[in-house]
UniProtKB/TrEMBL annotation:
It is an enzyme of class 3 (hydrolase). Keywords: Hydrolase, Membrane, Protease, Serine protease, Transmembrane, Transmembrane helix. GO terms for biological process: proteolysis. It catalyses: Cleaves type-1 transmembrane domains using a catalytic dyad composed of serine and histidine that are contributed by different transmembrane domains. Its EC number is 3.4.21.105. The chain crosses the membrane at residues 213-236, 270-289, 301-321, 333-353, 365-386. It comes from the Eukaryota. It holds the Pfam family Rhomboid. SUPFAM superfamilies: EF-hand, Rhomboid-like. This is rhomboid protease. Residues 209-354 form the Peptidase S54 rhomboid domain. One of its GO terms (cellular component) is membrane. Belongs to the peptidase S54 family.
Length: 387
């Protein structure tokens, strides 16, 4: 039987080369050089504004390209643009991983970008759903660091399917808290009711019941504990899931929960665990690392970093206070899960959530982070078996 070579997908480099040839890079060079007065391969933002009014550019560029170029002008961070950046924008070059992350979350995820000629003056036309698009652009600005990624995401995201993991896990956690409050006679307090006899909480004397190492995340001790975790899950988790998809967020969240219980069993073996702080701090640490590594490319990056650090420090301080508060049941809730969840977020989440353009050194970082996390989990499991 003859092999159907036509069924083989084309090589990405060949496709990219053909696209560049079709779009006539030489014509872009001619347009660009008209505003490159000294021939150094870059033009100022002021010259770029003039370039955006060039009739030749308006005839060959679509709305998406013009919007990205306009965004370069509107951002104070940029004083010039190189010809290579201009080519990347004109050719709509996005990495395969970023396209797949945006386009494959649903069968109808992709919104086609037309090549119709649109005058530059019509870029501010009202959209079919301006509130939704404004929300998507806000998420793109806050959780993506590259302007091309932001614009591509804002143009293609349709919220179909919507975020599922974070809303579902939040709903279950709130439901479990209400149930524990209903069956408890003590009522809701700052650090109660404490579900002492729940089959879900992690207890050091019940380590043989392995489900407790993960399912303790569904039980919370007090409304302050619940409120903070739910607030972070909704404010940080849902936008992260919109950008990265439910699978990545679920992996990081679960990794943080597991790291919290295993770390507590090693470093604070007498403490019990309730709450989803391990998973929450894994998401928070991953996003914090994203801000820290790319704060120069993010709006008010330093202030966001300081705000997240302040809120996290306040919550950890409350957890430390709660750990050493006397309880009638003589059971003390550990705070190690917060720290271990953050470590899991930094080790596993930093590479997953950093960006979509994985360079070679980031590829090695991914394997190093995976090896470190796997090694720590294996050590903790052996510790619980033999200690």
């Amino acid at each position: 039987m003859a092999t159907n070579w036509r069924a083989r997908p084309p090589d990405n480099d060949v496709v990219c080369l053909r696209q560049l040839q079709d779009l006539e890079v030489d014509r872009w060079r001619l347009i660009f050089d008209k505003y490159d007065e000294i021939g150094c391969g870059e033009i100022t933002v002021w010259a770029l504004r003039q370039l955006l009014q060039d009739p030749d550019l308006l005839r060959m560029a679509d709305r998406h390209v013009l919007t990205v170029l306009d965004m370069k002008c509107a951002t104070n961070r940029y004083t010039f643009i190189t010809f290579q950046e201009f080519v990347n924008i004109m050719s709509n070059r996005r990495t395969t991983s970023f396209r797949l992350a945006v386009e494959t979350e649903g069968p109808r995820r992709l919104v086609p970008v037309t090549r119709d000629i649109v005058p530059y003056q019509t870029l501010d036309q009202p959209e079919t759903n301006p509130l939704f698009r404004a929300m998507v652009r806000r998420v793109a600005r806050e959780f993506l660091t590259d302007d091309l990624d932001r614009q591509y995401y804002a143009d293609h995201y349709t919220c179909c399917p919507p975020p599922l993991f974070v809303p579902l896990i939040t709903f279950v956690e709130v439901g479990c808290f209400l149930y524990n409050n209903a069956v408890s006679s003590g009522g809701v307090t700052v650090n109660g009711p404490f579900p002492t006899h729940s089959m879900l909480i992690y207890r050091p004397d019940r380590r043989i019941e392995v489900w407790r190492f993960v399912l303790y995340m569904f039980v919370h001790a007090g409304w302050v504990h619940l409120f903070f975790n739910m607030l972070i899950q909704v404010v940080v988790g849902i936008p992260l899931e919109m950008v990265h998809g439910p699978c990545r967020i679920a992996v990081i969240y679960t990794a943080g929960v597991l790291a919290g219980s295993l770390g507590t069993s090693v470093f604070d073996p007498g403490a019990v665990l309730v709450g989803a702080s391990g998973g929450v701090y894994a998401l928070l640490a991953g996003h914090l690392a994203n801000i820290m590594l790319n704060y120069t490319n993010m709006e008010l990056g330093f202030l966001k970093f300081a705000a997240i650090l302040f809120i996290a420090s306040a919550d950890v301080g409350f957890a430390v206070w709660d750990r050493y508060t006397e309880r009638p049941s003589k059971m003390y809730v550990g705070y190690t899960a917060h720290l271990m969840g953050a470590v899991a977020g930094l080790s596993v989440g930093v590479v997953v959530l950093k960006n979509f353009e994985q360079k070679l050194h980031e590829y090695y970082m991914w394997w190093v982070a995976l090896a470190v996390y796997t090694g720590c989990v294996a050590f903790s499991i052996l510790w619980n078996i033999y200690y």
